[in-house]
Amino acid sequence: MKDKRLHFLVRAEEIVRLAIVGAALFLVFHIEGNTADRRMFGPSLFRWMTIRWGDATFNVGDYSHGWLIPLVSLYVLWRNRRAIAEAPKICDWTAAPVVAGACALHWLGARAQQPRVSLMAFILLLWAIPWLFYGRRLARILVFPCFYLVFCIPMNFFDVFSFSLRIFATKVSAAVLNGLAIPVVRTGSAIRSLYGQFSIEVADPCSGIRSLLAMAALATAYAHFALPRFWKQASLVAASIPIVVAGNVARIVSIGVVGSLMGEKAALRYYHDASGYVVFAVAALLLAGCASVLRRLPYRFSMRLLQK
Fold first, then answer.
1. Which of 110, 160, 250, 304 could form a cystine bridge with 282, CB 3.0-4.6 A?
2. Residue 171 CB neighbours (<10 A)
3. pLDDT digit string, tens, across residues 269-292
């Protein structure tokens, strides 16, 4: 009876300590987390992040998947709840420099008015503080659920690749349409039917950047759950880039096919918005296919490939 009571008191003390540290961490980044354009976003780093997910002024569609990322991390924690409970609770002071470095990173991000840097510091603290209090074994368990939160960060700097992706997708789509006996001419990022049936302008939202980050997040989660080895997981995440490009090409081609059969109005006014599901369907099938191939690859064969 005494052992159960002692165990309950120890667990209660751990929960209270974690709650205090978690509340303090949240308040620091909520009250003094953001220094960029406080009139619009306020001082909260979390408010800045969620507004960038949801404000059309800032390309919201590119980062609307951010709402799902914490749910995946929470599910991974719940899935590993037994390993977390059984991990030895030993204070590890080797994590102290990591905690200090994360605090310095937040200070630099605040001084430079770079909320993304502060968000990286927050994620690093989420991982390093449990390491400090409870040891390395718990830190190993928390690596994925903590650093998966990186996909929450609005990464607008990837927009610099949108023009190159637009031109590449346009070239490939025009070649595929011509191969399907739908004669088209490409001018820059525009595809025009030789018979005047349709004219498609591949704009920035159609470059594939919108789907790239969401598909990378999906591929990372799928790889973590479905593939056993790190190199296979990394390979699947890397494969998400050409997979998204292929899905985007399939979308543009499908718009061209609908335009040739039913006219430009049907293709651009009615089918265009629904064609986003084409990207997701093609990308999801290719992702599942790649995962299936990687899962069946024997270890010896994979090591030979890596050695070459």
1. 250
2. 14
3. 778 777 777 777 778 888 888 888
If we measure between CA atoms, which residue out of 255, 227, 244, 253 comes closest to residue 281? 244
Label residue 77 by pLDDT band (50, 70, 90). very high
Question: Distances from the Cα of 79 to the Cαs of 82, 85, 117, 232, in angstroms?
Answer: 8, 12, 29, 21
Domain boundaries defined on the chain: 2-154, 160-307
Contact 85, 10 (CB under 8 A): no
- For the stretch 79-94, pLDDT in tens is 998 888 888 888 889 9
Q: Given the structure tokens 């993304």, which residue do they identify?
A: 116
How many other β-carbons are positioned within 10 Å of the β-carbon of residue 123?
A: 18
**In whole angstroms, what is the distance from residue 298 CA to residue 228 CA?**
12
| CA 217/CA 219 separation, integer angstroms | 5
> Mean pLDDT throughout 114-142?
92
The answer to whether 92 and 135 have CB atoms below 8 angstroms apart is yes
Task: Label residue 60 by pLDDT band (50, 70, 90).
Answer: very low
| Class of residue 249 by CB neighbours under 10 A (exposed 0-12, middle 13-18, buried 19+) | buried
Least Cα distance to 69 among 159, 155, 132 occurs for: 155
- Based on the number of CB atoms within 10 Å of its own CB, is 43 exposed (0-12), middle (13-18) or buried (19 or more)? middle
Alpha carbons 161 and 171: distance in angstroms, whole number? 16
User: How remote is the C-alpha of 126 from its chain's centroid?
Assistant: 18
Contact 123, 150 (CB under 8 A): yes
Residue 121 CB contacts under 8 Å (≥ 6 apart), including other chains? 102, 103, 105, 106, 109
Tokens of 8: 């309950």
Q: CA 251, 253, 259: angle at the middle one, nearest 5?
A: 105
